[in-house]
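Input for the complex:
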Amino acid sequence: MAMKDNSALTPGLAFDQPLLEKIESVPGLDVLVGSLERLMNWASTNSFFVFPMATSCCGIELMTVATGRFDVDRMGAVIRATPRHCDVMVVAGTITVKMAPRVKKLWDQMPEPKWCIAMGSCAISGDFYRDIYSVVPGIDTFLPVDVYIPGCPPNPDALYGGLMRLQDKIRARQAGTFEPREARPETAKMILPAVKRLEDGDRDPLLSQAQLAAAMGIGLNGRELHSHEQVVAVGNLAIGRNVLAAAYPQSDVEPVQEPAPQAKAEAVGGAEAAAEAP
Amino acid sequence: MTDQWIPAVVFLILAGIISSAMLIANAILGVRAKITPPDKLDTYECGEEPDGAAWIRFHPRYYLVALVFVVFDVEAAFLLPWALNIRGFGYWALVEMGAFLAILLLGWWYAVRKGALRWQ
Amino acid sequence: MTFSCLQPPPLPDPHIDLDAYEAGADLMVLNLGPQHPSTHGVFRIKLVLDGEIIVKAVSYPGYLHRGVEKLFEKLTYAQVTPIVDKNDYLSPMINEQAINMVFEAGLGIEVPRRARWMRTIIAELQRIASHLVAIGTFVLDVGGAIGGGASVFMYTFRERELILDIFEELTGARFHYNTHQVGGQRHDVPLGWDVKIRAAMDSIEKSMDLYDTLTSKNGIFRGRSLGVGVLGRDLALQLGLNGPVGRASGIDLDLRRDAPYHLYGELDVQVPVLTEGDCLARFRMRALEVRESIRLIRILLEDVPEGPIAALKPSKGPTAVKLKDGQWYVGVESPRGELGHYLIASAGANKGMSPYRLKIRPPSLHLVSLVPWLLPGNSLSDAIAILGSLDPVMGEVDR
Amino acid sequence: MSPDLSAALTGLLGTDSVVNCGMIVPNNLHLPLATLLRDRGYTCYVTVCASHWPAQPALKGAPATEEHFEVATVLRDPTRRDAAHPDGSQTFSWRVSLAPGEAIASLTSLFAGADWQEREQYDLVGVHFAGHPDLRRLMMDEDWPGHPLRRDYAIDTPHAPWR
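Predicted:
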């Protein structure tokens, strides 16, 4: 069915609200839209149904948040085990290459409006496992992440902080006053990780450049990905065979462009050259 | 004679309107995703590709369990109107409902002894 | 009252091929998949069901394989400890101790008495915390999140918080402590630590009685765990299960008593052994072990040895420890069974600073390899109870 | 070491001086030794550890070695430590060195626990176990290229910038 792209009302969102549009179109009633939107925001932010994508240690901290001492029910959040009933997916733990397509499938099976929280440094960047052959370096290579909660494991108070950060983000986004995180210039030059990397002879450089391009496109320099611009597997990502790209067709939204392909080329070249010359 | 049935007809019409209104409103005004991913409508099987057909001949034992459930569901349906206006009936209604429940308890005990609920 | 029909089913052959089964049966394939609340982590079982009865269970681990043994080839001996924390994330302290004991066996150094005392008391505290999680999740699996099972789950996690506070006071972290190093400990015992431990032990002992009354007299709990998933003694031995699951099936083996390390030689560890081998026996075994650990901790708190807490100076850089060629195996009693490490050290690997090959023997891998043996013949709801009673930790299975 | 065990060992291997984790056993004696040990009390299967040793040029003092694999097996006898057996439960481990591509006998016929451990060693190091009921990959996907724990498999792959 042809999707009328009425994203004027909901600029950065992956869902649109026909109710608001209908009310907006009636001449007299559009004064109601603001308060109605605030009511719907109040309802959705204060009743998160958390989908626990718990794979390893952070999953135990997620369970601890559900129990008596750090009761997450105080925020109205309930941990439900089926994707069909949930609207916040908390990815807690290391996501391996074998698990990534499953997490992607579960994310697709969740109804809109949905948000994603990367809990723990394994989900954010793969932590010290990120160079291992079987670990996905951070879930934002294949999922649009809204809130990152650092820590290994982040204690339950940090998870509370993350949920509240998500609430603020939802309110700001709905009200249209959300401006993406400005790129902190000093992090741009941290191209080479501090620990010297062993070179892998038979890994073709295209793979690394594609991964660099995908990672560069996300948040670090400027436009943060909106949740409806699903992350497209640019080229041949580091995730084993290109399972995710096959399972996920090219989205009709224009793909993530690199701001200055020329400037970045030698940055990438520089990274490769520096990596080769130990 | 016909005027006895007017409340029932009104009740039916109201039920039809309310249920269809809810369905239609949801279809028109409900929140909708801009891009529906391909395997959104797959059956949820813990993240795995569901393999094997579900269109198989199921065991008759499931039918037995469904029967026992229907019996006690209907019992609950009878309890509800009785409990709502028990004040008007006086004590005799209590005894009658007690007898009704006793008979159904007998039925439940028979089902358990015959092992209808247990998977032989 | 025990239900008469709960006699253990005969042990079916796990590698059954399906057409040998009743030919005309319509079998349904169901995935008890990677993301499922009762699989205690990411572990997939493909169940072939005939109605409610499981005909065949094929299990697929590996969803959390983080290549830890490959990572060891790059890290030096001092850097390995925080990595091993993340394997069995329900008892991180015991992982750290096991790995550092195999390095100390390689180096041949002797850990000072105070450090060994601290390791013993930390190991018992961690065993209680891990068993509390196991008790809570098993009752949650059997009783159901809404059907009353969650109450014991809430109580056990409240008790576990007491122990996490004790560890937080010692090391500063709730979880993943990195407090052990080659040759001893990194953090010394804080003031008033023993007062806190005694208070925690009293409250845990009181709540253990509460759990017993909540479960042993509950008809549904007994009905779902009595006589379910019976594990024979010889199969348990063959599979190498010498933890609580093995002891619930009659194997009288506990490495704390039979191959003593730390200060266990001086404590006479009373090892409870049950013979029924069903889910209820495994559950009661863990409750008995918590009481035994509480008793041991109270004995240990009597006299606290003085002296240094580490044989080597705390390793400044990661390069302080070097091992010559050789191979060693050291096994430790973890809350799930024998946690062992097979270390192959060689001067060639990173000039002797990294282990050449370090194989971890995870007890949970043997618990999970029980699935094809135990599940066929049981109903689907019993499968959830059996998995809950085995209490595997997937971080340790997949490493 | 009980007397009949040392007698059986000298019968089989010609020596009973057992250096724990150090004894090299030829490939054909691997299964007989395991059977012998299991019948004499070592009934608890502990672990198997395969390691890859690439070819080494002749270093100072050390002779050149060509590429080979090593499979170490550990068994344990579950005896209780009391007055009669003062040293309690002991482990027994031996090593078998294999040329590349050579298969080693699988212990699944003796111990059910060996099934998954051997599948994992085949998956990660690439050592073939002859007589294993279904030698499939345990950890990685079925079609994963290569065996990760071999020394020539890279530890790090060049990686996107720290974020």
